[in-house]
Each structure stands twice: as structure tokens, then as C-alpha cells.
Amino acid sequence: MASGDLVKRSLDQDDLPFGSALTSSGRVSTAHEFGTKSPEHLPFATPDLVALDDALSEATRATQIRFNVFIGDLGANVSAGMDALFPGTPDSIRSILIAVDPNNKAIEIRTGRRVSDRATDRVAQLGITAALGPFRDGNLIDGLVSSVRVMAAAIVSP
Q1: CA pair distance 36, 153, nearest whole angstrom
Q2: Which of these, 37, 43, 40, lies nearest to 29 by C-alpha position?
Q3: What are the two backbone dihedrals, phi and then psi, of residue 98, each rounded to the nearest 5 degrees?
Q4: What is the DSSP letter of 32?
Q5: What is the pLDDT of residue 50?
Q6: Which residues pair with 92 in a beta bridge?
Q7: pLDDT values of the chain reduced to their tens digit, one per residue, 158 residues
Q8: What is the spatial distance between Cα 121 and Cα 127, in angstroms, rounded to a whole number?
Q9: Distances from the Cα of 27 to the Cα of 117, 119, 147, 154, angstroms
Q10: What pLDDT is recorded for position 5?
Q11: pLDDT for the residue 25
């Protein structure tokens, strides 16, 4: 999950891998020995992760709405999987979650009830539309960055 990591419903500090810490925002920060690869990050290059993190940070600053990203299996019923996942995300009532299930080729966006007046269905549709082109080209991170940026611009613009 981005704001950075995987969502876990009951995250215990003792269950974190060596070199990891739970930040006050609910994000898991992990340090690795220089030169070693982390199995959790192998699918994405560092510049891609930095671009996604920058987009999430900028969008959150500009809108005062927390943006989160989940990439993973949402189950056979993607919508039901998203409905089950969303309440466990950090600050869910004041956030937006963009979830991508690559196996089902699905993208879902949910907004918290305290921000739904600004992050409307129209904004979510703009985010999905922005992601589709890069997704078709096989650029998952580019699609997510585009989605976040378009949604943030639509929320900030009158």
C-alpha cells in the first residue's frame, strides 16, 4: 500500500521484519543493508517507487486528503474485496484508496465519508481514466501516478 506499504488489520510492532518500524502515520518504514534486495520491493524499481511516493505526498499536501494505493489480490469479487479492504486503510474516513488487482485487471477507487463531498464519483472516474492508458501499455506505476495527480488536480480546482 502506498503511502507506502501493505495493509494489515492488526499490525503489531513485534511482527515487523528486522529493520522495520511503524511510523506515527501508520506507514511501515523498512531499512535494508546496502546492496541487498528486499523481496517486498522487487517488482518495482527505486525510481518508480520514488515517483509514486512523490505523487502521493504532493496530492495529500495539496488536497489535505490522504491518498493510499494498494496493489494486490482483491479476490474473485473485486468490489467486495475493496469494500473489505478500505476500512483497514490508514485514516480511511478522510482518505482515498486506489486499489489495483493485476490478476483480475481491475482498478477500484473508494473515498472516505468525510471527504466524499470533494472526492466525488466524477473525481474517481477521472482517476480511473487517467490510469487506463499507462496500464494498457504495461506501466503500472505510471498509471497510478497519473491517477493520483489527476484526482488531486480535480479536487483542488474549483
Answers
A1: 38
A2: 40
A3: -105, 115
A4: -
A5: 87
A6: none
A7: 444 444 444 566 677 766 677 666 666 666 655 556 555 555 677 788 889 999 999 999 999 999 999 998 999 999 999 999 999 888 889 999 999 998 889 999 999 999 999 999 999 999 999 999 999 999 999 999 999 999 999 997 65
A8: 10
A9: 26, 23, 21, 26
A10: 43
A11: 64
> Is 91:1 a contact under the CB 8 Å cutoff?
no
DSSP string, 39-104: GGGTTS-HHHHHHHHHHHHHHHHHHSSEEEEEES---SSHHHHHHHHGGGSTTGGGEEEEEEETTT
Is the distance from CB of 143 to CB of 134 less than 8 angstroms? yes
CB atoms within 10 A of CB 36: 6
Q: Which residue type is seen at 36? A: T
Instruction: Determine the pLDDT at residue 1.
Output: 47
CA-wise closest residue to 98 among 154, 56, 40: 56
Residue with cell 524499481: 45
Contact 126, 154 (CB under 8 A): yes
Global pTM value: 0.73
Residue type, 155: I
Considering Cα of 9, then 52, then 139, then 42, what sign does the dihedral take? negative
